[in-house]
Amino acid sequence: MTIILSNDDVARLLTVPECMAALEEAYAELAAGRGVNRQRSDTLAGIESRPDALYSLKSMDGIAPKFGVGAVRINSDVVTWPKRGNNQRREKVPAAGGRWVGLVLLFSAETGEPLAIFPDGVLQRMRVASANGIAAKYMAREDATRVGLLGCGWQAGTQLMAICAARRIERIRCYSPTAENRIAFAAEMTPQLRVEVEPVASAEDAIAGADVVMCATNSIDPVYFESWIVPGVHISSIKRPEIEQRALKRADRLAIHTNETKPLHFTTRDLEVPETAAGKGWQLVDDVDFTKLPTLPDLVAGRYRGRTKPEEVTAFINNIGMGYQFAAAGAVIYRKAREQGVGHELPTEWFTEDVHP
Question: Which residues of 244-258 are buried (b: 16+ CB within 10 A; e: fewer)?
């Protein structure tokens, strides 16, 4: 039988610390050459009824033999790039009846059969945070207790869960350009983390005195700048553009998620995609050679030391995701769903065929 799970099911079955543990093990396997990941691809076209938006079909996949699974993550999105304050942002429109569309397909790496199908939203959030949390484990100072958070959206909450799993955090300040958002975010996260989250009126206030600065935005422009760097800080970002290039060059130690520089982009002829334009999104930080930087698997495998001195400035860029993450974390979700009887079972025969493909 193939299990169908909801986002609520995934949220009940997997915690951020569990996701971090699974991914850390998976990164060690990847570093040893015992796992495989396919580079993300984005296929885009215009929408006749929405000149302000593009249709994007995104996919990524990977195989984690140690976990016995492979996974494909697919997103079918209507995407816009509005200006919010001083930054241009990438925003997905919930155009499917007020909802978004993203799926994870989990397969057995021994028989090929589909094991589970579930939305990608909750796991997407957890696997991004887990990567940044694992990086902080290897790169932040051992005595780090204060966090400055830039961004108070969907990704920001699990970023805080991850850093609290990696270090004993005592103080958190958060900033969003929208006052209502940062106030509501702080009120939501304080009881969850059992650490006071203080909303502040500027990015500078958020990062003042912070041992760890976490960027968790949907901006395709920089949100953290060289002039803000202080000795000993660890700077963490969930996407390539967030940290100014000059700030990255100031880091004593810099690691990234993977050496893949950007997704494979496929578009209709002459299509303009804001995040691939000069000076935006994937074209930012083009002076940094991502193909030669140490990666998170290198940190986990001990090939690269994330920090050697307390005063070092360290930085981690979660520059692009991996389908491989969905395989490793998906295996944990599937195992726990089976153990706890969670989800809806459908006949596997519905998803297999007796005709040679």
Answer: beebbebbebbbbbb
pLDDT tens digits, 306-350: 999 999 999 999 999 999 999 999 999 999 999 999 999 999 999
- Residue 209 backbone zone (phi > 0: left; psi -120 to 50: alpha; other: beta): left
* Extents of the domains making up the chain: 2-120+322-351, 124-317
Average pLDDT of the residues in 144-163: 97
User: Of 148, 321, 318, nearest to 224 (Cα)?
Assistant: 148
Does the domain at 124-317 match CATH 3.40.190.120? Answer given as: no
- The burial of 291, by beta-carbon neighbours within 10 Å (0-12 exposed, 13-18 middle, 19 or more buried), is given as exposed
Pick the closest to residue 41 from 59, 63, 61, 62 (CA basis).
59
The pLDDT-based confidence of 262 (bands split at 50, 70, 90) is: confident
Amino acid at 356: H
CATH number for the domain formed by residue range(s) 2-120+322-351: 3.30.1780.10
The total number of residues written for the chain in this structure: 357
**Maximum CA pair distance of the chain?**
63
